[in-house]
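Chapter review. Work through the record for (African queen) hypothetical protein before attempting the end-of-chapter questions.
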Amino acid sequence: MSYLAGGMAISIRGRQASRKEAPILVVAPHSSFLDSCIVYATRMSSVIVRKESMDNYVGKLINYTQPVYVWRDDPNSRQNTIKEIIERATSKEDWPQVLIFPEGTCTNRSCLITFKPGGFYPGVPVQPVTIRYPNAKDTVTWTWEGPGALKLLWLTLTQVHSSCEIEFLPVYYPSEEEKKDPKLYARNVRDVMAKALGVPVLDYTYDDCRLIARAKQLGIPGGALCREVSELRAHLGLDSSQSDLDPSPGAWYDLQQFARRLGTDTQNPHARRLFDIYKQRSNGLVFFPDYQLCACYLSLQHEPVATLLQHAFKLYEASGRLSRNQFEHVAGRCLGLCEEDAGHAFTQADTDEKTFITYDDFINFAQKKAEYSFIFTSDSTKPKTQ
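Structure tokens for (African queen) hypothetical protein:
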């Protein structure tokens, strides 16, 4: 009734299998808080849901479906969730069907990202379920960037009519190989759903999205493509050797010099792609410390920002003493500070008016300022999540 009152017409195609036929319903793509309509459309199935999401109006209603809660950032919670899914899916008791959004986060529906294998561990048949919003104006997509939930809800309510299409695909029966390999099972189900939706698949995960969002928030050079940078470095054998992280302050490289610095040649497509990512339009060269800062970010992603900043001081200046302009450059690339804020921080950190500051100078200053507390914790710069 809530959806109908808001002008949302929900149409259902196909037949929902019984719990005996398919104990688990696999739903994708996940792109909006409005996807919660699937709970009602599937006759109050038990959804896998973040505990933090249960504090709103829709969350209170979902509580009645006996959901399986997960604290997404807690590894132990993930294991407990898998155990609970297995118990419910294989139980002879009259549990509701378990409903999962295997992507684990919201996307813009242009592709299907990596399915998490948690819902496939039981090795039981699953029924794929697709969601579409065939509207002229997209007022529902809630992703890492863009309008917030309240704005999207308002935009949706201002539409005279909105549509949501839910399609139940045939039950997918796993092979013996898939039963033994949940990741294979998840990939194959994703392929079936992607074909039905007419969209490609992309091997990105929630953790990848979080890594990219944090990189963009901090201002890491090439942050939007940091996952691709990680893959390219792995192809070049650099993720373990770290040979490309030796400080090269002020180094501008052409393609030949860049490839040589990475220990390869200009014919290597991975080196060429890395070069293209960091190439400056103004001169066609790569400022090597910018690339190195992104590589350090990937290597230190679980460390506090302070550790990254310590490396940055040496990457951009061999002596570790940064002038005002150098610090403004560094602060904009690993602290997300604008030029004005970085300049103000430099002035306050340079207590002796030396016209340069060291890493220790800045840390001594930052420890006394609440606005820089995020530097000292490894998980404080997390973006909003859905």
